[in-house]
């Protein structure tokens, strides 16, 4: 597998990415739900009532009082809601039918009313109210959740790249240990022949045999490390780890130490404009400003313009009442101003002061994060530069160790050296080769961490995140 194919699989299957990918969807539903404040509300009410008053004779005047009975039926329909300007409206229609019986006489009348009531705030809840505040905050939360997803993608890609590099390093270290075992076995065979002909003491043979056994143990440990590194990479690129049992991951790329030009100013510029955690802090500061704006508006008194208009109709039958409404013979309208202000207004003032302090706190937190980001970038560049220098130094160390071992082996053949010295130089060469692999791995990992510190990991790997 290539590194890019591993990254592609991780972006599809990594469980942490999949979990975080749901956060913007949840936040998007919250935004949609916040707009529900502007959905009109329909109401209907049907009432049927009866009332009876018993008759009798007035004791003083001996006047006969007839029995009274009344039946009333009413239907009330309403449609109301709120507009983004803060204007609230309520359209309603009321229809009633009243049947009254007094003794032998009977009366019946019907009424109908259709009208609308409007209320427009002028101070409190004028430029921002509860629903508008909720929508603005929900939008900010959506942006923050999208940035959280971006941060998770950056972290996951960095983890995959690091795990991929470690797997390559583990496999190359196995090759180094195999080469070391070949050298140890070769020296053991040579020493054994020399002991047999009396050219070497038996102790030299045992030393070579001990080195061969130690090298074999190191090879077993290196092979086990490959298994561990494979599992680490598997856990990052799949959500079904058990299904990959027995599957071997073989990196198709080799460790390379390509030169890189470092610019602290460019890296700082990238980080300050691309780091998701820094952008989140800025979004949270803007969210606090929205809260401050809302709390400031709540300090004002309520001063609302109210108005109503309607048509009323009356007749003996409901159809006649409706005809009266339709003709517009009995219009009704009103307008006025409503003023309301709590004396002291302590709650609103306390909430406004708290919002101001929270803005100051968020601003300081933003500055703190900016400073931390700049320190991280500076450290990441320093680490990458140091790692590149270690690559060059360790490469030279491998060459010198190989030259020293070859020269010592010739001296051993000429009888001018000892098996102990050759064994020591073999161990030294193996160590230098492992150090070189480690240095190249650390250098590439440092570049990955630098991109992570800059927030440029996605661009570095050509990953495009699209918002719905």
Strands, count: 8
In DSSP terms, counting alpha (H) and pi (I) runs of 4 or more, how many helices? 10
**Beta-strand content bin:** 15-25%
SS-derived structural category:
alpha+beta
| Coarse morphology | elongated
Tell me the count of domains.
2
Q: How does this model look, in words?
A:
- The protein has 468 residues and is of the alpha+beta class.
- It has 2 domains: 312 residues, Outer membrane efflux proteins (OEP); 123 residues.
- 61% of the residues lie in helices and 19% in strands.
- It has a 6-stranded antiparallel sheet with strand order 1-4-5-6-7-8. Strands 2-3 form a two-stranded antiparallel ribbon.
- Helix 1 packs across helix 3, helix 3 packs antiparallel against helix 4 and helix 3 packs antiparallel against helix 6.
In short:
The protein is an alpha+beta fold and 468 residues long. The chain is built from 10 helices and 8 strands. A hairpin with a 6-residue loop joins strand 2 and strand 3.
